[in-house]
Amino acid sequence: MIDYRSDTVTRPGAEMLEAMRNAPVGDDVFGEDPTVNQLQEYAASMFGMEAALYCPSGTMTNQIAIKVHTRPGDEVICESHSHIYVYEGGGIAFNSGCQVKLIPGDYGRITAGQILESINPDDVHKPRTRLVGLENTSNRGGGSCYDFEEILKIRKVCTENNLKFHLDGARLFNALVAKGNTPAEYGKIFDSISICLSKGLGAPVGSLLLGTKEFIDQARRIRKVFGGGMRQAGIIAAGGLYALKNNIERLGIDHSHATAIADTLREKEFVTEIFPVETNIIIFGVGGKYSAKSLAEEFGKNGIKVIAISPTRIRIVTHLDISSEMVEKTVNLIRSL
User: Is the pTM of this model over 0.90?
Assistant: First the structure.
């Protein structure tokens, strides 16, 4: 099967598995796993940030960050389709006791002006606005990327209004490759950054939360409360370390594959819309003789897995387990439909 359902379906290759097999390990809850420590130090240095914390998932790193930055009754500002709001099980309310102010975005992106207008006044009737969360790239925005200058403007709004600034960077490296920015540029702007190792970078498990030493010390306590402490985690951390050292630049290949598929979809009458394709995600609308469900089934009959994300939209995600030959087969199938 050719699996485009998500870039989370990637499997570690032979060299990554070898690194995992040979990883020195210890008890990470005691801070004694040398591979976990190396991964955390390497990631923090990439971003020019003081410290990092290895966790099982991006949902956990995001939720820990929100918990550290806020107090119950505070308000979090984010885009209406943000992962922290849509896909994390109501965690902002459940874990942190905060409410959310949603901003309708442009393919998942919000502006400094919108955020400024959304900050609550100092009024006992209203929750304190405490945190702004961005997602880059935006999953439900079709892998869209923020313009770095807009992020700088948002940082200015946060600074002037005493707001914390968190980045859900599950696919941040896709954005960095697409836009030509560096991790260090991002590390100077955000109070905290979450990065996933188990999506386009191809590691089997894990995400990292980055910030100041004081922030990460607090985050480690919250990770314990959330049940996220791991013991000999170096076995999986080694996969993440390998990914950071070897699998970033190749993300451009995934972007090219996505563009090739999107270009073919534009030729078809049953495709009603295609979100702009900047990275490795294609979201397109379906009409006419197909529903999203029936078209996904048609792909499935031909050995290709895609996912219907609504009655009228399908998502395709390219990743390191997708070869040029697989893309060619996909393109030929689309042309035949």
Answer: yes
